[in-house]
From TrEMBL:
The lineage of its organism: Bacteria, Bacillati, Actinomycetota, Actinomycetes, Micrococcales. The keyword Iron does not apply. The chain crosses the membrane at residues 29-49, 69-91, 98-118, 124-145, 157-177, 183-204, 234-254, 274-296, 303-322, 328-346, 366-386, 392-411. This is MFS transporter. Gene3D superfamilies: MFS general substrate transporter like domains. Residues 33-417 form the Major facilitator superfamily (MFS) profile domain. GO terms for cellular component: plasma membrane. The keyword Cell wall biogenesis/degradation does not apply. One of its GO terms (molecular function) is transmembrane transporter activity. Keywords: Cell membrane, Membrane, Transmembrane, Transmembrane helix. It is a multi-pass membrane protein. It is found in: Cell membrane.
Length: 421
């Protein structure tokens, strides 16, 4: 609309009041609110993944195997999968703004309980509480950014919000890991809890409130017809397959990444002092991969997915084969971080391309469920492999899972090509 209006500006005889009114009616882009929301995402993802960097410390302190600490990620993720839908339904009438504040406070309580936990079982209970909050958090945040901006700016707003999750891997987990090594793992969770409370205050002050979730005009007009249309939508099989590929890929990834700390320390013989810098390098590489998605592969998600999965398989294979050659292994580790940083946004983009507008909300919910199921299932698979056949077999299994996901992506693309032709 803006470009069309500008075409007529030079005529002089045509009033330009309507375009001016259009610009005046558009609110300024809510940078402060979106950055605040992104900060909340940063804290949430850091809370979810922090145990992956503190496996040795937590294991020794609580008197359990490192695989048991890795299962804390599974407890967290499976809680998200099981509780996000019912809790979201139960809270659907509550103000979205207030829910985010409440969730951040619950996150703070969960991390404080983790920090003071006398036993492993107590930590599990604290993580389950955090998982409930995490599921509710994402059910609210998923659409919050879209409520803050006009339709044409939704993509930009969502990108800013999701960037907080990427920064959690770049800064949150590495800094939390370094703090845990220097001052003890319990203090890392205390600091994170304090930051959660600060985040709650920032959300209260700077994040604009929005209306409650809407189910959409068509659904509101006739829910029965809307549900029937969703069930008969021709894009449902493609969405299900893409979400299944997402779940499979995440199972493979988190079977290895959950236990990357003992692999780097014991498998590669990395000095513990270098652990946090390596995790930081992995996160920065992931941010580069995210940048590649936005500049190169965003409009070609299928090509990006194929290249990303293939490059991930190659980099993890090199990491497993060259454990005795540290420079090669570290280079492979950083490469893995970059190419895997491409995969989640590409899979979500591919899913949104495949889904019709009528089922995009439902498809996004299914995608989130598949993603978290993959995280929990991967951490569980890694624990089983470590206890049964050893840590060195985990990257081999991961490569096998990546090959399966790659084959499924190729099959999906060929099916889509045949349908379009």
């Amino acid at each position: 609309m803006t470009n069309t209006a500008n075409i007529f500006l030079p005529t002089g005889s045509i009033p330009v009041v309507p375009p001016a009114r259009t610009h005046a009616s558009e609110p300024p882009f809510p940078w402060v609110g979106l950055i605040t929301l992104s900060a909340a995402v940063f804290l949430s993802v850091t809370s979810e993944m922090l145990p992956t960097g503190l496996l040795p410390e937590m294991s020794g302190s609580l008197g359990v195997a490192q695989s048991q600490i890795g299962l804390l990620v599974s407890w967290f993720a499976f809680t998200v999968v099981l509780t996000s839908a019912p809790v979201a339904i139960w809270t659907r009438r509550f103000p979205r703004h207030g829910l985010i504040i409440v969730v951040l406070i619950i996150f703070a309580v969960s991390n404080i309980l983790t920090a003071i936990a006398p036993t492993y079982e107590f930590v599990v209970a604290a993580r389950v509480l955090g998982g409930v909050a995490h599921g509710l958090f994402w059910s609210v945040v998923g659409a919050y950014a879209a409520h803050l901006v006009p339709k044409a700016q939704i993509g930009r707003a969502v990108s800013i919000t999701v960037a907080g999750g990427t920064l959690a891997f770049v800064f949150g987990v590495p800094v939390g890991t370094a703090g845990g090594h220097l001052l003890g793992w319990r203090l890392s969770f205390v600091v994170l809890a304090a930051l959660m409370l600060v985040g709650a205050v920032l959300v209260w002050k700077f994040l604009p409130p929005v209306a409650r979730h809407s189910t959409g005009a068509s659904a509101s007009a006739d829910p029965t017809k809307s549900a029937t249309k969703n069930r008969r939508d021709a894009t449902v099989p493609a969405v299900v397959l893409i979400c299944s590929i997402t779940g499979i890929t995440m199972i493979g990834h988190y079977s290895f990444y959950t236990y990357i700390t003992p692999f780097l320390l014991d498998g590669l013989g990395v000095d513990p002092v270098l652990l946090a810098p390596l995790l930081f390098a992995y996160g920065v590489a992931g941010a580069v991969g995210l940048l590649l998605v936005g500049t190169v592969f965003g409009s070609r998600p299928s090509l990006g997915l194929v290249l990303g999965l293939a490059a991930s398989a190659v980099s993890v294979s090199l990491l497993a084969l060259f454990t005795a050659t540290l420079p090669v292994a570290i280079a492979a580790f950083v490469l893995w971080g970059m190419v895997f940083g491409m995969l989640p946004p590409l899979m979500q983009t591919r899913m949104l391309h495949a889904a019709s507008p009528h089922i995009r909300d439902t498809a996004s919910a299914f995608y989130t469920t598949a993603f978290n199921a993959g995280i929990g299932g991967g951490a569980l698979l890694g624990a089983v492999l470590i206890d049964s056949v050893g840590l060195e077999t985990v990257p081999i299994v991961y490569v096998g899972v990546l090959v399966v996901a790659l084959v499924l992506v190729i099959i999906t693309d060929r099916m889509a090509t045949r349908r379009s032709s």
